[in-house]
Task: structure prediction
Amino acid sequence: MAADLLTHVLRQGDRALVLSHRLAQWITHAPTLEEDVALANISLDLLGQARHLFTYAGELEGEGHDEDHFAYWRDASEFRNPLLVEQPNGDFAVTIARQVFHDQAAVLYWESMTDSGDPTIAALAARARNETAFHLQHSAGWLIRLGDGTDESRRRAQAAVDAMWPFTSELLGADDEGALRADGLIGESIESTWQVAVADILLGAGLERPTSTEQCTGGLHGAHSEHLEPLLHEMQGLARAHPGATW
Amino acid sequence: MTGLLDIVRSVDDPELPHLTIGDLGMVRDVAVDGRIARIRITPTYTGCPATEQIRADVEAAVIHAGYEPVVEFEMAPPWSTDDISPEGRAKLHAAGIAPPAPTGDGPVSLDLPMPCPQCGSRRTRLTSAFGATACKALHVCDACRQPFESFKAI
Result:
């Protein structure tokens, strides 16, 4: 059970960390100055959530590892994030489609975790839920503007939704967490609520909900796409070049 | 221990220098046992980069007062903008930052127009939900034509 909980916490921490890094890659490249600031803020919130989750993972693991260990000293196959968050930023529409799918899942996940039987996770969930609600307002607002904007923005938004859709099932939970659920440590499945909420957002944006049922999975078990390693190389390079350095 | 509590509460927030961590409602408890002072503080946003600076500033203030500090951050119950004191809200307003609306139960939609801290008009628009720090949003006032920040209700 303790190992199951550790895996769960790492999946969530890795999700937040990897997406945080992806969003940070937009800094100085976003379409407007305000958007630069917004993506940086969302990235920072996710980084904060990841830090709390990794610190807790260290306690659960009991081997004296701190948050930096989990961020900097594991290789790609040890990461447990869903494949969606490691997908490249693409154009702005891809980033927004990825963010909408993620944020809607994150809002529902943290909401469900406020009742977790694990007091540490429940306390974090109460904060993260409120922060994540702002992220979803932002990303869903953009998807509606892109879908309901010009022909070109609509075409790109639909292409982005179609491209990110095959990576969504992993956001809705893992297939090996039944014991955690039975023990009240994680909440009920968010899948049906997520499907309805995302269908609503797509409808509001005038975009088609993809009909394909094919899904890419594996990230939750450490089988990643080719995109994670270059991301980790960038993120971990400084820490690995100067082990133990402080500044 | 009122003296030490006041000292801890009067530590400035690093990102809102006109406000103290007491104004923000971050200080949960100060307990003194001999020379040891245990300070319990609640962070605001989970990703707030000021947290480590606040720890260092509180430790320095407590050492200056002659105690040995043990600073603990606690997550539960979660901090809310409702914890900001009336003095804190007044200071925000005086600094040109619209104070947060009461949250009730959860985050407040940013769609409701914030009153302009400069002219008081409600003819304002949200320009971005994310500002120069994690806790603020950006607005513009259509009455006095000035941009302003608000403290996000959370």
Q: What stands out?
A: The mean pLDDT of chain A is 96.
